[in-house]
TrEMBL record:
One Pfam family named in its UniProt record: 5_3_exonuc
GO biological process, any: double-strand break repair
Subunit (UniProt): Single-chain monomer with multiple functions.
Single GO MF descriptor: DNA-directed DNA polymerase activity
This protein's record includes keyword Nuclease: yes
Function: In addition to polymerase activity, this DNA polymerase exhibits 3'-5' and 5'-3' exonuclease activity.
Enzyme type, top EC level: transferase
InterPro entries, per the entry: 3'-5'_exonuclease_dom (IPR002562), 5-3_exonucl_a-hlix_arch_N (IPR020046), 5-3_exonuclease (IPR002421), 5-3_exonuclease_C_sf (IPR036279), DNA-dir_DNA_pol_A_CS (IPR019760), DNA-dir_DNA_pol_A_palm_dom (IPR001098), DNA/RNA_pol_sf (IPR043502), DNA_polI_H3TH (IPR020045)
Record keywords: DNA damage, DNA repair, DNA replication, DNA-binding, DNA-directed DNA polymerase, Exonuclease, Hydrolase, Nuclease, Nucleotidyltransferase, Transferase
Domain DNA-directed DNA polymerase family A palm intervals: 737-943
Location of the 3'-5' exonuclease domain: 374-568
Name recorded for this polypeptide: DNA polymerase I
Organism: Kaistia hirudinis
Lineage of source species: Bacteria, Pseudomonadati, Pseudomonadota, Alphaproteobacteria, Hyphomicrobiales
Domain spans labelled 5'-3' exonuclease: 18-279
Length: 983
DNA sequence: AAGTCTTCGTA
DNA sequence: GTACGAAGACTTC
């Protein structure tokens, strides 16, 4: 290889058999920056990690065997010239939300250009065009000339260019991307990639796409219809209404997206492709640069390959110094993220403003996730190193992998940790070979014995000086509790998101990652499969397990960096610390306790219900004159309104006959026999399928109890929700329903204690709306519904007809729900006009409540949220919707949220206080369940007398000292052998 | 096998 | 009129 200096750019036409390499420089820089450990020039701390990675890659492509197995005849590094391109004229939001590059990356862009020149390689950039468009154009020209093309990049936007003779090479993963890989990723071949992308959109580049359509659905649609235009033209044929409407509504948005993602293959090039021919490496020039960068290893390699005496070459003095670039050299991301003692660059820059550090940190947290850097920890020494670094850092993201989604049955399979964005590991502990589950091969070799690993992790996980960060910690808390580990202190990114953004989208990790990091993590389903084909996590191969698990910890840590600062900035830190975070161990302990159910009661009921339902079914079919599926609303509607021609038939939104309870009740009142029997049949089958049959299947085989799962971040108002099984909707209204409650029992020698708030939401209405008459009524312990009726209708409370009181009660509930004449009319089975008149009269008597409702709407419109008594925010982004019914719905929800949410806050405060208070009093009762305004405990018989007043007192005083209400809270508490009698 | 619609249980 | 979750029927793949 000649070392001659060739200043004039040579040129050699591209012809058949040539091989053109096009390097996507810009995206390579970003990836190298995040994938590689932060590296600073020793002499002055100039960040050079991305430059080093880039130089190594380029050297390898030029001089050594690469993955493609050929040496380039033509080669260019293609860069983005500026942020604004023709795409911004199509769509002004294109790439709009893309964050600024991190501070310690910025000075490296210029260095990369210097590097390209030092390598004597063509460096291409062109105003108004992205690197991708230039690559597309060169690629087309090369193919037309009969040459092969290798695009060195991993950006999915370039995959549309793949065709015979054109492949992509991801040097960081050492992977070639061809037609098959594209099909694997997009579900369609390269030539259809743009069609799929224009439907699915791209959150990273802010390509809108069509809402509700992801890559999977898009691929399937394109597969079926061929291309975007055909699909849009025939969108009306699509069966699924949601999908059809989305495609029709957002057709133009999809067309815009199509233009955004389609690369321009006809850019008027400033530099002809012939000029990209590979030029000889000038050893001395390159070494001058590498020495200036202080890349000693690469300098040595280049020297020996080019035969230049390295010692005789001086570093290039023109290569920028940190100071000359006018850049502060901030801490590498890994350091900025930790509470570790300031070292290196941080120590050298004491004047660096905290917000600059925060910006650098946020930049790192938002940087692309690279799964290839995660470590699989297989030795106790490596584990000790990770634990020690976590302890030194004082902060670590943690995630557990297990054999089950049910934390009460899940066995630990592995633990992942993240110390800084991109710096994460997975510690497999109980992975097995890929067996059939019956013939287990035993543990996979090489894993650290679980006891040894937990012995290393436990001190760190319980260290008061190390903040553990998790997403949905309650799950991991429950799992680790069963291994004798109690995590503390901790933060939960799901709960931080919830307290900040309740009502503004979901709080699971995948949606949060999309929203805040613009990154799509590997999904659990992708790793384990789903449905019948699902495998347990212990059968996931270690490389896939590491990519998935370490990424979860990595993403969790990045989310924490993105969200935690908002708590203070937005004034939500107290709400998080008092209403959210302390609930994790409280709920975990409740779930772990579970509740005992009496199987024999349920199985007897099941039999009874089945028999009665069968009898009813026979009568129903007799009355109908033909056999049909009574459980099918479709068939039932045909019988009632078609065959029998009953009056009052209305259609549902989808055009089917409506056969809901209220319609059947109306018919029953008119004297028809069949509808009542249907109602009875429905009740019996409902109770049987949902409760008496289903509940026993939730019995935990080890504990012989039922362990529900509470969701802390599921509702907009702050309420909990319960699932698997839902123990917040156990029947209570009818006698048949109450029999089910009798199956919830205390264990021998104990009682169930139920303590519930009496009319808490109405009391909060009186408090928040500040209605003196209502406040006084509660203070005096009056019958609030009777009083309302008396005020409205002028009837004395004494001897009031029950129907009058019933109507007033419905109005009171209506107020809490953000009353409408329509709703009240439905509830009371009266006309809209009459209901409207009631409401008018109510507001005349209680004008303060109308003012409260108007004020709530105004506040919600102004801020986009309402606030509870304790500072929780409930967001209603559609409060100002143009559509009147959507707007009215949001207004009612906002009115309700202040009350429902304040009540939810109060019971949360009580729940946090109960366990310590019981313990302080030497009582051993355990809290088992929460049903919005009710707490259920299991208490030794001889402690019941002491527990009842203690619990009631804590609940009644729960608002204090944060709020001192002018209305008393009233709690009724009772003990019995089963839930029905205690309630 | 998975997703949507309808219905119904609770506060 | 608010807030939820679960089940069966039905549709779609």
């Amino acid at each position: 290889m000649s070392d001659a200096t060739l200043n004039a750019a040579p040129s050699r036409p591209v012809r058949k058999g040539d091989h053109v390499f096009l390097i996507d420089g810009s995206s390579y820089i970003f990836r190298a920056y995040h994938a590689l450990p932060p590296l600073s020039r020793k002499s002055d701390g100039l960040p050079v990690g991305a430059v080093a990675g880039f130089c190594n890659m380029l050297w390898k492509l030029l001089r050594e065997a690469n993955e493609v197995g050929v040496k380039p005849t033509h080669l260019a590094v293609v860069l983005d010239h500026s942020a604004t391109t023709f795409r911004n004229t199509i769509y002004d939001l294109y790439k709009a939300q893309r964050p600024e590059p991190p501070e310690d990356l910025r000075p490296q862009f210029k260095l990369i250009r210097d590097a390209v020149h030092a390598f004597n390689v063509a460096c291409i950039e062109q105003e108004g065009f992205e690197a991708d468009d230039l690559i597309a154009t060169y690629s087309r020209q090369a193919v037309e000339a009969g040459a092969d093309v290798t695009i060195v990049a991993s950006d999915k936007d370039l995959m549309q260019l793949i065709r015979p003779g054109v492949i992509m090479l991801d040097t960081m993963k050492g992977k070639i991307i061809g037609r098959d890989e594209v099909i694997e990723k997009f579900g369609v071949p390269p030539e259809k990639v743009v069609d799929v992308q224009s439907l699915a959109g791209d959150s990273v580049d802010n390509v809108p796409g069509v809402p509700g359509i992801g890559v999977k659905t898009a691929a399937q649609l394109i597969e079926e219809y061929g291309d975007l235009e055909t699909l849009l033209a025939r969108a009306g044929e699509i069966k699924q209404p949601k999908r059809r409407e989305a495609l029709q509504t957002f057709a133009d948005q999809a067309r815009i997206s199509y233009r955004l993602v389609t690369l321009d293959q006809n850019v008027p090039l400033d530099t002809a492709i012939d000029a990209l021919c590979v030029r000889p490496t000038e050893g001395e020039r390159l070494i001058r640069f590498l020495k200036a960068m202080e890349f000693t290893t690469l300098t040595g390699r280049v020297a020996s390959a080019t035969g230049v005496e390295s010692a005789s070459v001086e570093p290039d003095p023109s290569i920028a110094s940190a100071r000359a670039l006018g850049e502060t050299a901030p801490a590498p991301a890994a350091m900025a993220d930790t509470a570790a003692p300031a070292t290196g660059a941080v120590a050298a820059l004491p004047e660096l403003h905290p917000s600059a550090l925060a910006a650098a940190r946020l930049g790192a947290a938002r940087a692309p996730v690279d799964r290839s850097t995660y470590e699989t920890v297989l030795s106790i020494d490596r584990l000790r190193d990770w634990a020690a670094r976590a302890t030194a850092a004082g902060i670590v993201a943690v995630d557990t992998e297990t054999t089950s989604l049910d934390p009460m049955q899940a066995d630990l399979v592995g633990v992942s940790l993240a110390l800084a964005p991109g710096e994460a590991c997975y510690i497999p502990l109980a992975h097995r070979g890929e067996g059939d589950g019956l013939f287990t091969e035993g543990l996979l070799a090489g894993q650290i014995p679980i006891r040894d690993a937990l012995a290393v992790l436990k001190p760190m996980l319980e260290d008061r000086g190390v903040l553990k960060i998790a997403q949905n910690l309650k799950y991991d808390w429950l799992v680790l509790a069963r291994y004798g580990i109690e995590i503390a202190p901790y933060d939960d990114t799901m709960l931080i998101s919830y307290v900040l953004d309740a009502g503004r989208g979901a709080h699971g990790m995948d949606p949060l990652s999309e929203k805040w990091l613009g990154h799509t993590p590997i999904t659990f389903d992708e790793v384990t499969g789903k449905g019948k084909a699902r495998i347990t996590f212990d059968r996931v191969p270690l490389d896939r397990a590491t990519a998935y698990a370490a990424e979860d910890a990595d993403v969790t840590l990045r989310l924490w960096h993105a969200l935690k600062p908002r708590l203070v900035a937005e004034g939500m830190a107290t709400a998080y610390e008092t209403l959210e975070r302390p609930m994790v161990p409280v709920l975990a302990q409740m779930e772990r306790a579970g509740i005992s159910i009496d199987r024999s009661i349920l199985s007897r009921l099941s039999g009874d219900f089945a028999q009665s339902a069968a009898a009813l079914e026979a009568e129903i079919q007799e009355l109908a004159g033909q056999p049909f599926n009574v459980g099918s609303p479709k068939q039932l509607g045909d019988i009632l309104f078609g065959v029998m021609g009953l009056p009052g038939g209305t259609k549902t939104a989808t055009g089917a006959w409506a056969t809901g309870a209220s319609i059947l009740e109306d018919l029953a009142e008119q004297g028809y026999e069949l509808p009542q029997k249907i109602l009875d049949w429905r009740q019996l089958t409902k109770l049987r399928s949902t409760y008496t049959d289903a509940l026993p299947s939730y019995l935990n085989p080890e504990t012989k109890r039922v362990h529900t799962s509470y969701a802390l971040a599921a509702t907009t108002t702050g309420r909990l929700s319960s699932s698997e099984p839902n123990l917040q909707n156990i029947p209570v209204r009818t006698e048949a329903g109450r029999q089910i409650r009798r199956a919830f029992v205390a264990e021998a020698g104990k009682k169930l204690v139920s303590a519930d708030y009496s009319q808490i939401e109405l009391r909060l209405l009186a408090e928040i709306a500040d209605i003196p008459a209502l406040r006084k009524a509660f203070r005096d312990g009056l019958d609030i519904h009777a009083l309302t009726a008396s005020e409205m209708f002028g009837v004395p409370v004494e001897g009031m007809p029950s129907e009058i009181r019933r109507r007033a009660k419905a109005i009171n509930f209506g107020i809490i729900y953000g009353i409408s004449a329509f709703g009240l009319a439905n509830q009371l089975s009266i006309g809209r006009e009459e209901a409207g008149a009631y409401i008018k009269r109510y507001f005349e008597r209680f004008p303060g409540i109308r003012d409260y409702m108007e004020e709530t709407k105004r506040i919600c419109r102004e801020h986009g949220y309402v606030t509870t008594l304790f500072g929780r925010r409930c967001h209603y982004p559609d409060i100002a919707a143009k559509n009147p019914s959507i707007r009215a719905f949001n207004e009612r929800a906002a009115i309700n949220a202040r009350l429902q949410g304040s009540a939810a806050d109060i019971i949360r405060r009580a729940m946090v206080r109960v366990a310590p208070a019981l313990q302080a009093s030497g009582l051993s009762g355990r809290m088992l369940l929460q049903v919005h305004d009710e707490l259920i405990f299991e208490v030794p018989e001889d402690e019941v007398a002491a527990t009842l007043p203690l619990v009631a007192g804590i609940m009644e005083r729960a608002p204090e000292p944060a709020a001192r209400l002018n209305v008393p809270l009233k709690v009724d508490a009772r003990a019995a052998d089963n839930w029905d009698e205690a309630h």
